[in-house]
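Render this sequence as a predicted structure.
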Amino acid sequence: MSDMKALAQLMKELEDQLVVCMRCGMCQSVCPLYDQTGRESDVARGKLALLDGLMHEMFRDPEGVYERLNKCLLCGSCAANCPSGVSVLEIFMKARAILTGYMDLPPAKKLVLRGMLAHPELFDRMAEWGARFQKIFTRPVNAVVGTSCARVISPLLGRRHFKNLAETPFHKMVPALKTRPGKSGVRAAFYVGCLIDKIFPHIAQAVIDVLTHHEVGIVLPENQACCGIPAVSSGDMKTFRSLLEHNLNRFNPGEFDYLVTACATCTSTIKEVWPVMTEAAGNGDKGLLQRVEKFAEKTMDINAFMVNIIGLASPTPGIGDNTKNPPEVITYHDPCHLKKALGISVEPRTMIKANPNYRLKEMTSSDWCCGMGGSFNLQYYGISSTIGRQKRDNIVATGCSSVATGCPACMLQIADALSRAGDHVAVRHPVEIYAEQLKRT
């Protein structure tokens, strides 16, 4: 992205997209960040107004523009509710790419993104070493939520309650897999994603169990890499391009009918972000764009895949109707990247309802952002945790013993909020709930 010609092309694309915004302010009512700060510069309309003069501002105060532009959850609430159809997230990502191309990354982000994330095998080794020694620096705090905290307050972890790295990541449990389809006649590739691989491997195992039960052929390539959303969010197109090509080379589209993920963010990134940012930063590589588009077309969230393509198994008779063991109350949080970006909200609930041991009870504002926002949580933890507490209050008000959501990042945020409040509510994934039902059939 140091190529000024590429920067100029991105700038032109931004100018064409910015004119669509009518400055109506509809985004104010749905922005979780504006709800907390009340600042115009924190809402989409304010940021878009700032970007109108990006060329001038970039040379006058690039650090200031970068800071204001990065103070965003990228939840997509503004885009999902925009009456003019402004592609807000696309605009923000392109603007960040322009600024990073002009300024380069801060040293810390460069170390993490280009020094570690861009090298999947190194990233895996570092996570494995972290898992070995994490108990020295952390202690358990909530057995039901499954969280720990730092033994000594640290600048990075602060007072967070977090999920530890798994002792064994999923890529060590199941390095690769290739099975033939049975009666389903469908072959599905499985993209695992970083958080599920390294923190929630049981979710990946539940996906394998579900696909196997329904006789779906599974293609699980080894040495998968990050989907690239941390790099794109930071405007690091160099790392994004590296991760994109790495993953494209792992999967052969001719070997599968669909690509499934259990991560809302990964699904949204592959389907929505990959094509847009490949075209923006592909330097005219039409072949690469065609590969990405073909890949994106086949990508589906695991809940949508199971409900809309395969079909769910009928509940086992007699389970869940025993008055001595009434169904467990569970509620559901809609991940922004699943509902707002992809329009998927019914399918995860259908997965949960397929298990009669659970009774789904809706929380208030189930689709209000939980406040995670990836690196936003690290940089603005005070605001992030305040938004998280609102989500926690809505969860607890249902009287549930479990909360489900289809995004591992949301799971981390919700676990932190519940654990810090001393609640004993388990945080689950819908595919886990459905997999439980299959074990009894």
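Summary. The radius of gyration is 22 Å. Residues 139 and 148 are 5 Å apart (CA to CA).
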